[in-house]
Amino acid sequence: MKAVTTALAALSLLLGVATYTGATAQDLRIAVESGPTSNDPHFHALVPNIAFHRHIFEPLMAQDARQVLRPALAVSWTALDDVTWEIKLRPNVLWHDGSPFTADDVLFTLARAGTVPNSPSSFRIYVQSVVKAEAVDPLTVRLTTAVPTPLLPNNLSLVLIVSRRHGEGATTADYNSGKAMVGTGPYRYTSWTPNEALRLQRNSSYWGEAPEFADVEFRRIAAAQARVAALLARDVDVIEFPSTADFERLKSNPQITTVESVSNRLIFLHLDSARAASPFVTGPNVLRDARVRRALSLAINRAALVERVMERQALVAGDLGPPGYFGTDPALTPDPFDPDAARRLLADAGLPTGFSLTLHGPNDRYVNDERVLQAIAQMWVRIGVQTRVEAVPRATYFTRATRTEFSAMLLGFSPNPETLGMLEPLIATYDAATGMGSANRGRYSNPAVDALIQQARTTVDNAARERLTQAATRAALADTAIIPLYFQYNTWAVRRGLSYEARTDEMTLATSVRRAQ
User: Fold this and answer.
1) Helix or strand run (H / E) with residue 385
2) Which are the contacts of 162, defined by CB distance < 8 A and separation ≥ 6?
């Protein structure tokens, strides 16, 4: 199949496309790498899920294409003091069933978002600081936090508001079936076939700008080359993440428009640094030793990953956020490629002949993810770490990773939009009660780092919070809490006659597609 789709892509790029078959002017078909893992907007804090759900449901405040906060269901938000926020809601907003949106729906959502059973990655971290939520009137909400929480508006921008009328008593299965899929967003839910397609219809009573296309189909095509072939055959109108090789060729095709943006998504490795015995490390869990974690980092040639595997569609990483993000530290640089130093560290740790482990990752979630895994494994083998790769579909992978079934794993995560938004879920000690460390699948724990994170997250003064964030990041990376690899580029390709607004958060949104002027 790969050979056939690659050949079709190459032929189409060479000859161009003479005819158009498919959607009408009112339809839009988008091919994506990963469909939603659930329709429940509070089940899994995963970028593709949030992107899909944003068409049907809306947050109080939204992040634009560069993660700047904009009014959505809230028209304003004001800090009355260090722990009290007043949020004014947009009037005359209707749910898809015609009932009015009110403060009561917000209160219900805040109570529900962090409590969905069996969540692979909970939204609790975004709402857990709120200890009191009250409706001042039908269009005013007042929130009280346990401690100063300067990032509360950013956190709430990821929490989609659901209707109390349809959500009270509703389970994740009710959302998956469509029964509870009643939102305020620009599109109404039509149907969902897991791992295949999600279909939407324009909401004619939407309070905001009407979507340009009446009917939208998100079609999951996991293989990048197959997505390219579908675009060139005009079976779809928009694709995300073309293969890195095909993206360069698409740029020269007059029938196609390409867009790209540096991503805020860090691709990194998490290592099991907690358990005495780890399931995929031979013998005792040597990953608990910071020298071993550091050795694994020094053995990785990040420049080669970017140049050869990612074909220059990435930026090497030495920090938690890309350059320019609040909280990043210009003094932090990527670990050098130094296999000799890596071997010395292993010897110092009592492992002169290395050890054996399995490196896990998805094969359908990140750009070139399986190729990246294989390349890293080869680099580790060269320092004596006998590495086996196991790449699995994302649905299985994230479930198992959340259950901490792996020893070393490839993951991606984005700040929101400060790098503090990486420290809290990825590096802080895991605490199910508070939501801290919710995505810390290696269960890294360092009390000194935790103290800095806690200080930062309760500091309202921007300059002081940035200094604390930088200090926490430096301490965590010096201890190799995670192994940063690179920031991938976000890329899209659309058929001639359409345009797409590139986003740093990698979300593929039907509302970002326009007919070209």
Assistant:
1) strand 385-392
2) 41, 42, 57, 105, 108, 109, 112, 180, 183
The backbone region for 435, taken as left when phi is positive above 0, alpha when psi lies in -120 to 50, beta otherwise, is: left
Contact 148, 116 (CB under 8 A): no
Q: How far apart are CA 423 and CA 473, in angstroms?
A: 7
The pair of structure tokens assigned to 94 is 């209707």
Instruction: Give the whole-angstrom CA distance, residue 455 versus residue 449.
Output: 10
Q: Which of 151, 162, 148, 57 is nearest to 111 (CA)?
A: 162
CA dist 486 to 233, 251, 378, 414, Å? 33, 23, 18, 12
Number of neighbours of residue 457 by Cβ within 10 angstroms: 24
- Give the integer Cα–Cα distance in Å for 285 and 273: 8
The SS3 assignment for 392 reads: strand
Contact 74, 87 (CB under 8 A): yes
Please, which contacts does 403-407 make with residues 24 or more away whose CB atoms are closer than 8 Å? Answer: 404/272, 404/441, 404/443, 405/279, 406/272, 406/279, 406/280, 406/358, 406/360, 406/441, 407/271, 407/272, 407/278, 407/279, 407/280, 407/281, 407/285, 407/287, 407/357, 407/358, 407/360
Break the chain into its structural domains and give their ranges: 265-488
| DSSP category for residue 281 | B
- Smallest CA-to-CA distance from 49 within 192, 230, 237, 214 is with 192
Per-residue pLDDT of the chain (517 residues; tens, 9 = 90+): 333 333 333 333 333 332 333 445 579 999 999 889 999 999 999 888 999 999 999 999 999 998 889 999 999 999 999 999 999 999 999 999 999 999 999 999 999 999 999 998 889 989 999 999 999 999 999 999 999 999 999 999 999 999 999 999 999 999 999 999 999 999 999 999 999 999 999 999 999 999 999 999 999 998 999 999 999 999 999 999 998 889 989 999 999 999 999 888 999 999 999 999 999 999 999 999 999 999 999 999 999 999 999 999 999 999 999 988 889 999 999 999 999 999 999 999 999 999 999 999 999 888 899 999 999 999 999 999 999 999 999 889 999 999 999 999 999 998 777 899 999 999 999 998 888 998 999 999 999 999 999 999 999 888 999 999 999 999 999 999 999 999 999 999 999 999 999 999 889 999 999 998 7
Distances (CA, A) of 21 to 85, 225, 513: 52, 20, 19
Instruction: Please measure the distance between the N-terminal and C-terminal CA atoms of the chain and give it in whole angstroms.
Output: 37
Token pair 């801290």 is found at 436
Q: Between vectors from CA 490 to CA 489 and to CA 496, what angle results, nearest 5°?
A: 130
Q: What residue type is assigned to position 467 of the chain? A: R
CATH of domain 265-488: 3.10.105.10
Euclidean distance between CA atoms 370 and 391, whole angstroms: 6
Beta-ladder partners of 386? 356
